[in-house]
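This entry is passed on directly below:
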Amino acid sequence: MSELIDNRAHRIRTLKTIIKRLHGGESPEAVKTQMKELVGETDYSEIVAMEQELMADGMPVEEMRGMCDLHSLVTREVLVQIAPPGVEPGHPLDTFRRENDAIRGVLERMRAAMSALEAVDDAAPGGKPLMEWRQAYNDLMDVEKHYQRKENALFSKLEAHGITGPSKVMWAKHDDVRALLKEMGAALSVQDATAGEFKLVAATAGETAAAAVEEMIHKEENILLPMSQNTLTEDEWADIWLASPRYGWCLVEPLDGYRPPEQVVKQGLKLSGGEDVELPTGTLALKQMIALFNTLPVDITFVDASDRVAFFSEGPDRVFARSRAIIGRKVQHCHPPKSVDTVERIVGDFRAGRQDVAEFWIQLHGKFVHIRYFALRSEEGEYLGTLEVTQDLTRLRALEGERRLLEYDTPAKGENA
């Protein structure tokens, strides 16, 4: 055992020495050769320990941030990945990994659209490939929820175990990815650019952003998630599970299966004053409130003051399907590109106090659908968000005359029609 510990300590010291040469200007190829010769093999825990020690020795976080992609590049060939133990469907680890698979799928679609753009004449509009690229970009922006869950729910648990590197370095890398995605989005929003100009964007901002997202997935799956699985307790994973809905899920919903310890669930769902919610006009039990929202004859969706979807009702006959993966998503990314300008104007007018209601009605699959948006404000006038109310008015518009006697439209339960 002492020999094993000594070998591990020796590998970490060797890794530090070699990585310092990389920071000193040696080429990645030379460093990779040294890694193979002197280290042979390593695992995620030794990589993390090496980076933690470098920061403890005084290496600035910004320097570590600027070099961590090169760290990943030069250690890939010596990093040994041991298959992690399985987890139940719906466990936070399972959800993180499924989200990464979904993100890879979006990146594949985005690259396919950028590639298809090459066949369009430089002087022409971007056409269908540009539209598909913009849609893939909208979907890719869902990665924000994935990052926020890591930053706010996962990193704090690792810090409690003395593992501070991810929150200091990986969080900064998240911000780098965010900046790259923002740059690509700004370029894609230009309406009168030619296909030739968008091809240049694809080769620069587009590919750079895609590569950055892919690199983050590699760091998660080969270092962060295995480390978290081997470090955190069952109760800590339960806390992450309970905290996750406030940030939402990226592209996919958690599967059914995982259930945290009952005592943690009760603690996480506890409301002040028991399960009753006191409102100015009455008091409702939590289960009553859920049933009330799900029985309303309209679909409601609430977007908070930060433009993120915070809640939706789950009635049996929703006009527009909703998935829990939409929670936490920017409302601008929940609409096709051609509608984003309208969404921005409504939210902007509501936030500025210029308007309080926006109303639309459309024909949809043989239904007459009424859609209204309401600005929500506090008693002091503070903008709290936007409420969307959607209703299928087809049956109501067809009503004539009067109905004054009780007459059910459906047979009593348990009786034949």
